[in-house]
Amino acid sequence: MNQHVNLVLTGRWLVSMDGNEPLEEEGISVAVAGDRIAEIGLNLACKYPQAELLTCPQGLIMPGLINSHSHAAMSCFRGLADDLPLMDWLTQHIFPREAQLTKEIVYQSTLLSLCEMIKSGTTCCNDMYLFTQEVARAATDAGMRAWIGEGFFDFPSPCYGELENGFAYVEELFKAYKANDLITITVTPHSVYTCSPPLLQRAAALAEEKQALLHIHLAETMSEVSGCMEQYGCSPVQHLEQLGLLNERVVIAHGVQISEEEIALLAKRKVKVAHCPESNMKLASGMAPVQAMFNQGLTVGIGTDGSASNNDVDMFSEMSTAAKLQKVRDLDPTALKADAVLQAATMGGAALLRADAEIGSIKAGKKADLIMLNMNQPHLTPCYQPISHLVYAAKGSDVVHSVINGQVVMRDRQLTTLDELTIIEEMRKIGEIVLRMH
Ligand SMILES: [Zn+2]
């Protein structure tokens, strides 16, 4: 393996998330060979002098963060309609504008979010949206690792029109990204309130056939639960159970309005949960019982949701919010401790994607998805417990270097795969188009 090492990261702290305690030692290094982590040790730049070096004297090396639920292209709606209930926000502001989206808007808006994700330490996202061929193209351009799904609804989509075409569109995606290193295709019926039981079952059959993840919004708000009770006589979780949809490949986004019994059922069916606290707070959806989910052994990841309901995709602030919100919910300062939150944002997200053998921690042989933070800053000094700082004090802007699949995507805060200023300029023009939509 030695002769293939082509990249070395060297700092002062290592938070590997592989079950070992954080390490503090000057010169702590991670060596990368191609797309994989080759070795962890001290001063590896001396051992591999030919390798490219990413360094920071007070640097903290950790696995890249995994955003378990995103709609990257919704950056074009950021700040357009705030302070509204979910259903009004969706039906009066988002859905009518989404109906007028184009390939180009989705591509550019996704690129913008990918800039933001890389600049705040995210190396992988689980994205659900429209025009996902464009989302996949943007992720490929950025070098971002992404799970991507095209939204299914009972109503026509601006991307594929009638539903029948949607299934053909998704078949094409599966074909195009069959053996892709970075992109994995998922099946994404939007929710129980926008998808009829036959559509949900057809989506589930496709996910089964492809052995793909089924990613759906579920039990997000009280109005979703009461609507489901009215229409189907049961809660959203029970509805999916009755349709035979719950299994280990299902990822539910939110899971806010669920009972202890439903958590037990989700645990039994090995369903995974993407917890999106900032979106849940902003839309006043409620507080997901995350500590109870952990207690029952559920796999939980952390997600930002779209930046129209957050309003950013910074996973560091999402982790901080997740930890604090759970304490408020349970009136218990010991609920959802920092290490549990960091675990959810790394190995939890990886397990949610069924990719924990490949990503989510720093271990020789795993994919090289790594970030380094500069800890030489007032808000991170002194550093008694690195994990405490990562969850409660660090910000996305503290990330200085980022590596995805062995490729350096940010060096000294400069993106290497994307032209940030041009993307921002393009987004200004898109903002003018979105503003004129009605
Ligand atoms: Zn969402």
How would you describe the overall organization of this protein?
- With 438 residues, this protein is of the alpha/beta class.
- The chain has helices spanning 44-47, 86-98, 103-119, 132-142, 163-176, 197-210, 222-232, 236-242, 260-268, 277-282, 290-295, 315-330, 338-352, 386-392, 420-436; strands at residues 5-14, 23-33, 36-42, 52-55, 59-63, 65-70, 122-129, 145-152, 183-189, 214-218, 250-254, 272-275, 300-302, 370-374, 399-404, 407-411, 414-415.
- Strands 1, 2, 3, 4, 5, 14, 15, 16 and 17 form a nine-stranded mixed β-sheet that branches. A four-stranded parallel β-sheet has the order 6-7-8-9. A four-stranded parallel β-sheet has the order 10-11-12-13.
- It is globular.
- The model has no long low-confidence stretch (mean pLDDT 97).
- Zinc ion is lined by residues 69, 71, 217, 253, 305-306.
Secondary structure layout plus pairing:
Elements: E1 5-14, E2 23-33, E3 36-42, H1 44-47, E4 52-55, E5 59-63, E6 65-70, H2 86-98, H3 103-119, E7 122-129, H4 132-142, E8 145-152, H5 163-176, E9 183-189, H6 197-210, E10 214-218, H7 222-232, H8 236-242, E11 250-254, H9 260-268, E12 272-275, H10 277-282, H11 290-295, E13 300-302, H12 315-330, H13 338-352, E14 370-374, H14 386-392, E15 399-404, E16 407-411, E17 414-415, H15 420-436
Parallel strand pairs: 1-4, 1-5, 6-7, 7-8, 8-9, 10-11, 11-12, 12-13
Antiparallel strand pairs: 1-2, 2-3, 5-14, 14-15, 15-16, 16-17
Zinc ion (ZN) binds at residues 69, 71, 217, 253, 305-306.
Distance between the termini: 58 Å
Largest sheet: 9 strands, mixed
Percent range for helical residues? 25-40%
Question: Unreliable segments (pLDDT under 50, ≥5 consecutive)?
Answer: none
The total tally of domains equals 2
Give a list of the ligands: zinc ion
| Rg, Å, rounded | 21 Å
Q: Approximately what portion of the residues adopt beta-strand conformation?
A: 15-25%
Task: Please provide the count of β strands.
Answer: 17
The total count of helices amounts to 15
* CATH domain fold name of the largest domain: TIM Barrel
Mean of the pLDDT scores?
97
Query: Which CATH C-level class of the largest domain is it?
Result: Alpha Beta
The CATH architecture of the largest domain comes to Alpha-Beta Barrel
Shape type: globular
- Find the structural class using helix and strand composition: alpha/beta
CATH H-level superfamily of the largest domain: Metal-dependent hydrolases
